[in-house]
Amino acid sequence: MEKTRNKTTGFISQLPKNIFSGFVVSLIALPLGLGLALASEAPPISGIIAAVVGGIIVSIFGGSNVTITGPGNGLVVVLLGAITTLANGDLYQGYVLTLAAIICAGGLMIIIGQLRLGILSDFFPSSAIQGMLAAIGIGIFAKQFHVMLANTSIKGDTISLLTDIPGSISQLFKPEHNEIVIAAIVGILSLLIMFFYGKIRNKYFQLVPAPMWIVLLVIGLSYYYEIFSNSEYPINASLLVQIPDNVLSNFPTPDFSQVLDIKFIGVVLAITLISSIESLLSIKAVDKLDPMKRRSNVNKDLTALGLASIASGFVGGLNVVTVIARSSVNVNNGGSNRSANFFHSVFLILFVVLFQDQLKRIPLTALAAILVYTGYKLSAPKNLKDVAKIGKEQLLIFFATVIGTITTNLITGIIIGILATLLIHFVMNKSVLFFIRNLFKPNVLMFKEGENGNYFVSVKNFSSFLNFFRLKRKLDTIPENQDAIVDFSLCDFVDYTVQESLLGYQETFKRKGGSFEITGLDIHGTSSEHPLAVRSLIPFSKKINIGSKSPFTKRQTDLQHIAADFSWKYESKKNENTVNLNTFVFFKIKKINYQNNTICDPAKVFRVSDVEFSEGEFIARTQVRSTILTINLKQEIPKFTLDREGLLEFVYKFAGFKDITIDGHPDFSKRFFLLGENPEKIKLLFTNELVLFFESNPYYHIECNGNTLLLMRKERLASIKEIKALLDYGTRLENIISKAQYEEILLKSPKIKS
Amino acid sequence: MSDTLIHKFNTILIGAAFSPNLKNNIFEAMRMVDFFDCRLNIVHVGEKTDEKENTIKKLISGFSEDDDEKVKVIWKEGDPVEVIIDTAKENSADLIMLGAIPREDFLKFYIGSIARKITRRAHCSVLLLIKPSEDLRPCNHIVVNGIKDEKTKRTILDSFEVAQNLGAQQLTIVEEISHQEVKVIVEDDKSLLKDTLIKEQLAKEEDQRVQHILDDVPRDLKTGILIKTQSIFGKRGYSIGHYAKVVAADLLIMNAPEKTTFLDRIFPHDLEYILSELPTDVLIMR
Fold first, then answer.
1. DSSP secondary-structure letter at A528?
2. Chain B partners of A589 at a C-beta cutoff of 8 Å?
3. What is the 3-state secondary structure (H, E, C) of A574-627?
4. I need a surface site. Which of A311, A443, A660, B68 has the fewest CB within 10 A?
C-alpha cells in the first residue's frame, strides 16, 4: 500500500514537469510532424496524427519511460518511396495504399514485441550508436541551420547542406532578401537564447525553459506589431507555422487491395524493419539519457508501437516509432515518465484545435533554432573527445558510422558501424577463428554463492557486443539491491560496449543499495589509458600496455581509495618475490606466480594483496587468483591452521599438524578444523575471547606460520566490499591476539612449568 | 536395495599410440589401476613390432612383476575407434581412458576426433584426461552433475566410490538450472521479482532432490569427504564445465549422454559442449 501511495504521490509531484515537457515537445513535434509528412509526400496532417495517436497509445501500453513517439526521421525515405511508387505516381492512391502497409507493418511489430525479439537491440556496439546519434545531430543541424536563417527552400543531402551554410549566411546581406532578415535575426537570437540560457542564473528566469522563452517572445513580438506598432509584421507568412483549416475532419480509408502484391509486401517488410530498428536504437539511446536510469521494457514498447501504428494508419496517420530527437528534447526539458508523451499528444490536439491563430504567429526560424541547438547537442564535439579517449579504434568506429549514416542512411550507417567494430576486433585479436569458434558458446555462468549470497558471474572466452546479450540476460536477473561480482579472469577479450554497459549496471546497483564489482580485468592488456579501454589477454599491438603499465581498473582505483582512507600504501605492480608466503603450509603444494594490488600499512603489519598461484606442474589446470591478508605479529605464537572445511587437512597433517579440540567449546570444535604442531600451546592461545571471536564472526581460512597470520576467504579475488570486511576482521583479530599476552599465559601455565 | 549397489571399475582399457604422451598416458592408467585395484588392458592399434613391444614392456615393468594377470597388452590392427570399442567389449572393460590435446594456446583443451567418437559410442565409462602426467597430481575436488535425470543417482553414487579411491576431500554436486526452466523473461522490476522467486524455489527443489540421493549414499563412502551442493544458472551441460574451471576442480563427473545423432553435433548440448572445451579431467559414467 505504502509503495503504491509513494508511487502515486511521486507521479503527481512530477506531473507539472511532465506536462511542461510534453508541451515543449509538442511545440517541436508540431512542425516536425508537418515537415516529415510533407517530406514523405503525404498530407501534412498525417504526421500530426501519427504523433497524437502514438503519444496516447504508447504512453498507455508502452514499456519505456522518457521516450516520445511519433513520425520518424529514418522512415521518410521508405514512406516516400512507397507513396510515390505503389500507385504508379498517383500520390493520393499511393498514400491510402501506404496506410494499409503501415497497418500491416504495425501487426508485424506486435508479433516482434510478443515474441520478445527486443533483445536485438543489444547487438549494436556502443561507439557505433554514438556515431549514429552524432550523425542524426549533424543531419538535424545541417537542415535546420538554413531554416533558422530563413532559407526554407533549400534541399539536398547532409553534406551539401553543410557546405551551403556560408551561402545562406551571405544571402542575408543581399538587398533583395531584406524581408527575410528580421526572421533570420529572430532565429539567431533564439539560438543565442538556447546557448546562453544555462549561463543566466536567475531563478525567475529559469522557471521557464529556453524553448518556451523563445515561443513566448516571438508570439509577443507578433502581438506587438498587431497592437502597438503601425508597421506590418515584418516576417512573411510563408516563414510562419502553417496549419490547414479543416484539421481532424475527414479521415482517408486505407486501401488493402494490394495486400498480396510483392511490391506491397516489400514495403511492409521495409517499414517493419526500419521502424523496429529505429525504435530499438532510440529506446537504447534514450535509456542512456534517462536521468533515473530505468530499464525500458523494449518488447512491451514494440507491441505498443505496433498498436499505435495500426491505429494511426486507420485514421490516416504515418507509422509510429520512438524518436530520438524529440525524446532527447523531452529529457532536456525535465520529462521523467510516460505522461510527458501523453501530454505531448494532448497539447498537439489543443494547439491544432484551439490556438491555431497564435501558433500561426510562430516563425519557423525560431523553431529551427531550437532544433539547431538539439542537433548540436547530439553531435557535440565533447562526445567525440570522450570516444577518442577510450581508444583510437573507437574513434575509427565512430567516424565510420557518422560518415556512413550521413552519406547513406541510418540503417546502412549502423551496419557500417557494426562491420567496422567487427573488423577492428578481428584485427586486434589477430584472429577471426577465435570469435567464430566461441560465438555460439554459452559463455556466461552465474551462481549464488552459498554462504554470503553473492551472485557470482564468470565470463569465458570473449565478451563483446556480439554475445553481450548472454551476459546481459544473466545480469538482468540479479536484483539490484544484492551483491554481484562479475569475473573476467577466464575471458580473453572484453570490448568497450560490454565495459560501458557494466558501468551502467554498477551505477544502478549502487543507487539501489547493492554492489556490483568487476574483477579479473586488471591482468588484461589495454589499447589506451582510459579505464574503459578494450581489454585483451591476446596481445594486439606492439605498444600494448601489460600488467603494471595498464591504466587502473575500477577495482584498482577503489583499492587505491581504500588505501588512501586508511593512509596506507597501494601498489598495483606485480611482485614476483613471494618468499614470505612460501613458508605457509597452504602454499606448500602451490606455486606462487606473483602478488599484485597490494595495500600495506606504514608499520607493515597488515598487507592485503591478490596472489596468483597454481597447483601442480601444469598451470592451466588450477591457476587461481585469490585475495589474501597477511598480518605480521609482534610476538611469536605457535603454528596453527583454522579451517572450516578441513579441505587441506591432508597437507597439514603431512606437515606434522595434529587435530586439536579446545576444551569447553564443543560447538567451536564441531564447526572448525583446528590443526597445529603443538596442541598444548595452541590450547593456551585459544582463550575464551578468541574462540568467541571466531564463533561470532564470518568464517575465514586462517593460518599462522609462527610470525605471520594468513587470512583468506575464497580461492578467488575478493570484491572491494569483501576486502573491507577482511581488513576489519584482520585488525580486530590482530587486536585480540596481540592483547592475549601469550608469553605470560605460557609462564603461568603449571603444565608447561613442570 | 540393488539401487545403491556401488559399481566398481574392474578393468581399465587404454589405447596406446606411440606419441610423446605414451609414457604419461600409461603412468596415469597405472595409477588408476592402483587406486581402484583393478586390471589394465593396453590396446595398441597397429602392427606389432619388437621395438614397440619392448617400449611398452619397459614402461610397465615396475608395475606388473607381481601379477601377470593385472596388465594385458593387446595388439590389433584396424580402425582405431572400432578396435578400441570392440576390445573394450570383448574384455568387458568398464573404463576407457583417453588423453586430450591442447590447442590454440596452452590454456584450452580439445578432444581429438577419435577420442570423441569413442566417447560417444563406448559401452562403458570414459575418462578424459586433459594433461596426462608422469607424476601424481592429487585429486582434491570433484564436481559431479546433479541434473534431473534417471542416471544421475547412479552417477552420484559412483562418484563417491571414485572420490574415496582417489582420496578426494571435496565433492560438489552441481544442479544446473537452465533459462528455459525459469520460464520468465526479465523485462522490468515486476518480472525480476518473479524470476528471483522462481529461481529460489527451483534451487530449493533441486537441492532437496540431491539431498534425497545423498541420503542413500552409504555412510562409509561419505566419510572424510566434504559434500556441497550448488545451483548454477546457465546452459545445461556447458555451464558445469565452466563452473568446474571457476572452482578449479580436479575432476568432473558427468552422466553418459543419450545416443547422439548427427544433429547433436550441429546443435551441441550437454556432453558435446564439454567435449568441445575440456575444463578439467572428465569422467563420463555409464
1. S
2. 138
3. CECCCHHHHCCHHHCCEEEEEEEEEEECCCCCEEEEEEEEEECCCCCCCEEEEE
4. B68
